[in-house]
């Protein structure tokens, strides 16, 4: 499970800075700090100092690692530098900005007022921060054909495969791709041809991308045979049928291109959770006003919310009987958490938490535990987003459950259908259940198939049991469950052949 880690550069400019120097303008510099927990901040870098200006545009860029699945709290501070000391304690503070890296990259360019401290503006001063991913997004797609390979098997033909190596800056060769047996070689420059089984080397050759683009043939040379036999020419030939350089877009390309990540929550209120007034219930509120459901929601939601402009999140419950009559009806498989079916949107993650606390005492926990209604509901919205034929909308559904799923077959059918849509499903298992059904839906141990045998078009489900993170840091759960979302988003738009939309003008606030 690889984290989404990218190198990002921030470019900073300011306008209308305070003048602290008598008879001249300030000499500003920008420092970048990242929160390391609590009230501790670590300096990541500084720009150059620019003399005598109230409207600096700093050329020195500020570099840092970007992690989608973590909240990265940043502080940018502007100082008037009037001495050669690197200590900022004796320099005038012209204002600063506290912001998350997620907010910056989702806007691409962000302009905000500078503040001397919370609630106190630094005159009319503003700061503009622009993010840019540092990456070479070119990829090479090859179709190769091997002919006249030496036989390595006594009683038949070889089962050849190809290993592709790329030479690093240190001169060492790194394996970047291995083909399947006897398949076309699709996706750089030594290449070695092996026979499966004992992995006997058939031959190898070294080339460059520029040579591959000329559509040529290469002799596969076995070094030992070449030494022994003067008449030796090759152990087979590899010909290049096609070679294309393509752009391989990253998660940040799509986010910075204006793609919105729409977040929806589904909360399990079935009877197996236990009476919420009992301390043994999974919905029981501890003295600090939290439980496993709320802790999981907060952990995941605070990361996602930076990627949705309006911060309005639909939230639903399932498995409960509703007031005033508490009659059994289909509605309890998917009801608005704020009891407003016409407008199920909550303002920010705090709004979802408030709605949950409001309705919890009014519900009668029931059953069964059906996932398919809420998956189908969000899938229908995602289907509408897919109609735009642009990389502008992606959807993430978070289901919080105690794991006693009733409609397993309908749920896997719903997931297989949803795998063709711009949607990822995160399931967090609360409580002590074994969660075998959830692990089957995740599909990490095998491809998930529908009841009629249709396989998912792409992996869209990530399941994590909350108990693994009960005693870990608050960010650990989010890092685990969100780790696959960037690749899932990219895989969808790649499947559809959709490039990132052009970046929109930054919202000012």
UniProtKB/TrEMBL annotation:
Any one Gene Ontology molecular-function term assigned to this protein's record: calcium-dependent phospholipid binding
UniProt entry tagged with the keyword Cell cycle: no
SMART domains: C2, VWA
GO cellular component: plasma membrane
Signal peptide bounds: none
CDD domains recorded: C2A_Copine (cd04048), C2B_Copine (cd04047), vWA_copine_like (cd01459)
Biological process, per Gene Ontology: cellular response to calcium ion; positive regulation of tumor necrosis factor-mediated signaling pathway; regulation of canonical NF-kappaB signal transduction
Xref: Pfam families: C2, Copine
Annotated C2 domain residues: 1-114
Domain of life: Eukaryota
Alphabetical UniProt keywords: Repeat
Family: Belongs to the copine family.
Protein name as annotated: Copine I
Gene from which the chain derives: cpne1
């Amino acid at each position: 499970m690889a984290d989404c880690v990218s190198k990002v550069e921030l470019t900073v400019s300011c306008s209308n800075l305070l003048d602290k120097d008598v008879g001249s303008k300030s000499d500003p510099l920008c420092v970048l700090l990242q929160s390391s927990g609590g009230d501790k901040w670590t300096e990541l870098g500084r720009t150059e100092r620019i003399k005598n200006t109230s409207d600096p545009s700093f050329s020195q860029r500020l570099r840092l690692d970007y992690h989608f699945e973590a909240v990265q709290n940043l502080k940018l501070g502007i100082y008037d530098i009037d001495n050669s000391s690197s200590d900022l304690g004796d320099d005038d503070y012209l204002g600063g900005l506290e912001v998350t890296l997620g907010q910056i990259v989702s806007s691409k360019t962000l302009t905000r007022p500078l503040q001397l401290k919370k609630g106190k503006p630094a005159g009319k001063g503003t700061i503009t921060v622009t993010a840019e991913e540092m990456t070479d997004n070119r990829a090479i797609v090859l179709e190769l054909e091997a002919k006249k390979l030496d036989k390595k098997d006594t009683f038949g033909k070889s089962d050849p495969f190809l290993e592709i190596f790329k030479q690093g800056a240190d001169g060492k060769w790194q394996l970047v791709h291995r083909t399947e047996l006897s398949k076309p070689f699709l996706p750089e420059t030594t290449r070695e041809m092996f026979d499966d089984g004992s992995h006997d080397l058939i031959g190898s050759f070294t080339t460059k991308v520029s040579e591959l683009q000329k559509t040529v043939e290469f002799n596969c040379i076995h070094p030992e045979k070449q030494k022994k036999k003067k008449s030796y020419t090759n152990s087979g030939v590899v010909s290049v049928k096609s070679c294309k350089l393509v752009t391989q877009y990253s998660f940040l390309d799509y986010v910075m291109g204006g793609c919105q990540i729409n977040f929806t929550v589904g909360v399990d209120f079935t009877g197996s959770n236990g009476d919420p007034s009992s301390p043994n219930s999974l919905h029981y509120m501890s003295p600090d006003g939290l439980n496993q459901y709320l802790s999981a929601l907060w952990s995941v939601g605070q990361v996602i919310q930076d990627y949705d402009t309006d911060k309005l999140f639909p939230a639903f419950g399932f498995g409960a009987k509703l007031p005033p009559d508490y009659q059994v009806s289909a509605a309890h498989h998917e009801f608005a958490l704020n009891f407003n079916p016409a407008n199920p949107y909550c303002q920010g993650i705090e709004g979802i938490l408030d709605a949950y606390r409001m309705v919890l005492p009014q519900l009668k926990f029931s059953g069964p535990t059906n996932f398919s209604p809420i998956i189908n509901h969000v899938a229908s919205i995602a289907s509408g987003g897919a109609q735009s034929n642009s990389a502008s909308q992606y959807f993430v559904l978070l289901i919080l459950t105690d794991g006693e799923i009733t409609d397993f077959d309908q749920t896997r059918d719903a997931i297989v259908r949803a795998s063709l849509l711009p949607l990822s499903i995160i399931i967090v298992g609360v409580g002590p259940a074994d969660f075998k059904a959830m692990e089957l839906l995740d599909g990490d141990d095998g491809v998930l198939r529908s009841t009629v045998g249709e396989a998912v078009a792409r992996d869209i489900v990530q399941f994590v049991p909350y108990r693994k993170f009960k005693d870990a840091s608050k960010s650990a759960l989010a890092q685990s469950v969100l780790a696959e979302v960037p690749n899932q988003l990219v895989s969808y738009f790649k499947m559809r052949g959709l490039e990132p939309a052009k970046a929109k003008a930054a919202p000012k606030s």
